Amino acid sequence: MPELKAIGIRVYRGDHAVLDGLDCELGTGRCLQVTGANGAGKTTLLRVLCGLIEPEEGELWWRGSRISLRSPEYQRALCYLGHLPPLKDDLTGRENLRFASVLRSTSAPGGREAAIGAALAEVGAADFADRPTRSLSTGQRRRVALAALPLSEASLWILDEPIANLDAAGQAVVASLIARQLARGGSVIAATHQELGLPASSRDELVLGADR
Amino acid sequence: MSDFFRMGGYAVYLWPAYALTFAVLAWNVLSARRALREAKAEARRRMGLRPEPRS
Amino acid sequence: MDWTWFHKFGSPPHVYRLAGTLTPWFAWPAGLLIAAALYGGLVLAPPDYQQGDGFRIIYVHAPSAWVSTMVYAVMATSAAIGLIWRMKVAHAVAASCAGIGASFTAASLVTGMLWGEPMWGTWWVWDPRLVAQLVLLFLFVGYVGLRSAIDDLGRADRASAVLAIVGVVNLPIIRYSVEWWNSIHQAPSVMKMDRPSMPIDMLAPLLMMLLGFTLFFAAVLLVRLRAELLRRERAAAWVKEVVS
Amino acid sequence: MIGAALAVVGRDLRLALRRPGQALQPLAFFAVVTLLFPLGYTPELDKLRQIAPGVLWVAALLAGLLSLESLFREDAQDGTLEQMLLSGQPLAALALAKTAAHWLLTGLPLTLMAPVLGIALGVPGSAMPGILSSLALGTVTLSLVGAVGAALTLGVRRGGVLLGLLTLPLTVPTLVFGARATELAIAGEGLSGALYLLAALAVLAVTLAPLAVAAALRIGSE
Questions:
Q1: What is chain D's Cα-based Rg?
Q2: Nearest chain A residue to C153, by CA
Q3: CB distance C235–A15 less than 8 Å?
Q4: What CATH number was assigned to the domain covering residues A4-208?
Q5: What is the domain partition of chain A in residue ranges?
Q6: What pLDDT shows up at residue A106?
Q7: CB–CB of C234 and B43 under 8 A?
Q8: With bands split at pLDDT 50, 70 and 90, how would you rate the model's confidence at C189?
Q9: Domain coordinates of chain C in residue numbers?
């Protein structure tokens, strides 16, 4: 049974069909890399899959049952990271993550602060987590935002350009984050042209706009 | 007849009220018909530009 | 239950053709009724014992006010249907309503003022009906403004539908609050318009006008709806059939 | 759900605390508008007292409106609004929390400031409890109605003007009942009737407005 399956997704912008009857499938414990030219609808597809955009037509199946994109159970099970790191400039990285964690009502068995500390250490952001976000560089912001992924306890990660603006070390962090998520039995959808650094055995690819 | 148009001295109020209301009615008719005409013309123009492929 | 009628009303080509067929059935009776009511109201009806011939403004004022309220009701209902069942045709109906509604609301306000000046000696009275009508005009204008400010049609449809529904909840409250406010600040007798009974030769033209304006609105709405459907569905195959 | 809503309130309050200048702007606006009236009308306190209810309420309304424009805009721009939409929490509850924070940061300070401005308009000290209670209730409704407008105009061209056009007509009932309550308070008469009506409006707004805000936010962030 696949983790997530989308059938016949159709999204219009005016007359133009951004996604025209798209099917895709994501296996449990696998990473689906979405590629395609600019304007092929990568971001649109990701936003449809997390329920931000309601498609004109199409079905979504999650763990064997058809769901509404806005079902709270599904949304609690997914964590979306868009190309902007969702951080407040006036808060520190740690405060931002604390808010994200309480907002999702994560269980954090070992205590919330410990979980935040562990997540920050995992992405190598512990050194600058207590500085106001406005003083951080673009790459540092991305790292703080990435810490929200392990913290979210989500089984499905949906990532838009996760390694943009990251140096080699940062890209390695993303690769290891994804690898650990897959090893835990979670799944990942990532839209990027760059190499994610994953073994081909755990990776599928979806090329958008290939038939045009 | 001129009595009718004088409307018992209320002509200055009554006739503008009628004129305005009927102007609104006329505007509604004309603008609706113009909208339909323009929408049809636009559709024809698009059809001319992008003819349906014959199968 | 058989839902095919519901799906038929959700199908743009079907609605387009139906609207085209129905338009004359509304337009002609509307024209005849309005013409007959004009004759009845301006010539046959006797002058009012208090207001003389001035009362004849009622034959254009009351129908305009009535239609403006009805347009809002139709607009909000179809907006709600469009929002709940994601029905494109319903959104097209709501979009077609706003301009008609705004024009009739403006007409009712101005004719109300033209009636007020000879009757109460002032162009404007802070009367509940006038204030509520003014708020209605702002709602129509705001609705059009919101629609035109959003580029994406689907978003504009749904955002303006939320606004229309919010307006429906608010209009009665606004009306009530202004009446309450008016009862404090003004003697309520100033605006007493309604009388126990109107003689039949005065009432009949009024009823004919009300019906005539209603049918007129229906006819205009159907024409605008067809234009709106053509514009929205310009890429669809059925449009090519109907315009060629 | 309650924890998440409280987190939203707490975060917005903390953000305002880090930018005190921004939070004070509506208050300064309220003061400036109110104090323009003696200059534009008359310095005689007896006459000013008559128009004080209307002046205080209209100025409070405009000051509140000024701060509403950014209610959801900043969250939408930095992406935290999307995280709220996707949190799996009922969006109406989060919308209510955002509005509650807005009221704590604008409605409440405006209310507390009104007596001070009232003195400048010749309002007697005995009217202050009435002014405080009516504004406290009325600003709740204003924040909620305004939040609907702010959510509808999210990401819209020239949203500020449109926000005013959409919101102000809907605030007529609050203005009517609020100004009347203030008038009664100044005249030293019982104002419980007007306060009940204001409370009824506030309850209605608390129940319905969050649903409209939630719907508008989903539409606005597509």
A1: 18
A2: A14
A3: yes
A4: 3.40.50.300
A5: 4-208
A6: 82
A7: yes
A8: very low
A9: 56-188+198-243
Domain boundaries, chain B: 2-49
Grade residue B54 by pLDDT with cuts at 50, 70 and 90. very low
Q: What is the pLDDT of residues A124-183, one digit of tens each?
A: 888 898 999 999 998 899 999 999 999 988 999 999 988 888 888 888 999 999 999 999
All chains having 3 or more CB pairs closer than 8 angstroms to chain A: C, D
**C152 neighbourhood in chain A, CB within 8 Å:** 13-14
pTM of this prediction?
0.90
Say if residues C68 and C103 touch (Cβ distance below 8 Å): no
Flag the least confident range among C55-64, C125-134, C148-157, C219-228.
C125-134
**Cα–Cα distance measured from residue A102 to residue A85, given in angstroms and rounded to the nearest whole number:** 18
Beta strands, E only, chain A: 4-13, 16-26, 31-36, 57-62, 65-66, 78-81, 156-160, 187-191, 203-208
Residue A9: what are its φ and ψ, rounded to 5°? -75, 125
Q: Rounded to the nearest 5°, which phi and psi values hold at A208?
A: -90, 150
* Helix residue spans in chain C (DSSP H): 4-9, 12-39, 58-85, 88-120, 128-149, 153-185, 200-232, 237-243
Q: Distance of CA A33 to CAs A26, A194, D1, D176, Å?
A: 10, 10, 33, 58
Nearest to C166 by CA among C182, C142, C149: C142
Which of D148, D176, D183 is most worth mutating to test chain C (most C CB atoms within 10 A of its CB)? D176
Neighbour count for residue D125 (Cβ, 10 Å): 9
Which helix (H) or strand (E) element contains residue A175?
A: helix A168-183
Q: How far is CA D131 from its chain centroid? A: 15
Q: CB C103 to CB B16 under 8 A? A: no
- Smallest CA–CA distance, residue C36 to chain B, in Å, is 15
Is B50 exposed, middle or buried (CB count within 10 Å of its CB: 0-12, 13-18, 19+)?
A: exposed
The token duo for B30 is 């004309």
Question: Exposure pattern of B6-45 as b/e (b: 16+ CB <10 Å)?
Answer: ebeebeebbeebbebbeebbeebbebbeebbeebbebbee
Interface of C with B (CB under 8 A): 34, 42-43, 47, 52-54, 56-57, 60-61, 64, 99-100, 103-104, 106-107, 110-111, 114-115, 117-118, 216, 220, 223-224, 226-228, 230-231, 234, 237, 239-240, 243-244
The yes-or-no reply on D/B contact (3 CB pairs or more, < 8 Å) is: no
Q: How far apart are CA D47 and CA D57, in angstroms?
A: 17
**Would you call B44 an interface residue with chain C, using a CB distance cutoff of 8 Å?**
yes
Residue D144: its H or E element? helix D128-152
Pick from A54, A73, A103: CB nearest D7:
A103
* Whether D173 and C145 lie within 8 Å, measured CB to CB: no
pLDDT of residue C191: 45
Contact indicator for A51, A44 with CB cutoff of 8 Å: no
| Largest pairwise CA distance in chain B | 73
Q: What share of chain A is helix, strand, coil (3-state, %, to 5)?
A: 35, 25, 35
The H or E element that residue A183 is part of is helix A168-183
Distances (CA, A) of A70 to C21, D9, D126: 41, 24, 53
- Chain D residue with Cα closest to A99: D7
C174 contacts D173? CB cut-off 8 A: yes
Determine the residue type at D13: L
